[in-house]
Design brief:
3 helices, 0% strand, mainly alpha, Methane Monooxygenase Hydroxylase, Chain G, domain 1
C-alpha cells in the first residue's frame, strides 16, 4: 500500500471526526453514531496499513497534524456529549430505582 493511500486514510478519519463534532454541536446523536461507525472502519484499515508502511519526514508531519486534529475533535465531542450522557445516566438510574421499587413492593 502506498504512503499516499495511507495518508488519504488518515484524512478520511479526520473528515469523519469532523462530521462527528459537527453532529455533536447540533445534538444530532444518530449522525454522530453513524460518523463514528464510519471512522471505526477506516481506523481498522489503518491498523493494517500503518504497521507495514515507513514514512518520510514530510508524511510523518502530515500524519501528526491529522492525529492532532482528530484528538481536538475527540476532546470537543466529549465536552459536548458529557452533559447529555449525564442526563441519560440520571434517567436510566431513575428507571432502575423505579423498577427496584416495583419489584420490592409490587404493583
Amino acid at each position: 500500500m502506498s504512503v499516499r493511500i495511507m495518508i488519504e486514510h488518515y484524512e478520511s478519519v479526520a473528515a469523519a471526526s469532523n462530521r462527528m463534532v459537527e453532529a455533536a454541536r447540533r445534538g444530532a446523536w444518530e449522525d454522530l453514531v453513524s460518523a463514528e461507525a464510519e471512522c471505526a472502519v477506516v481506523i481498522e484499515r489503518l491498523r493494517h496499513l500503518s504497521s507495514t508502511q515507513a514514512l518520510d519526514p514530510e508524511h510523518v508531519q502530515r500524519k501528526r497534524a491529522i492525529i492532532h486534529e482528530v484528538l481536538a475533535h475527540d476532546a470537543e465531542i466529549r465536552d459536548l456529549t458529557q452533559p447529555w450522557m449525564a442526563k441519560l445516566s440520571a434517567l436510566l438510574g431513575d428507571k432502575r430505582r423505579e423498577r427496584r421499587m416495583r419489584d420490592a413492593y409490587g404493583e
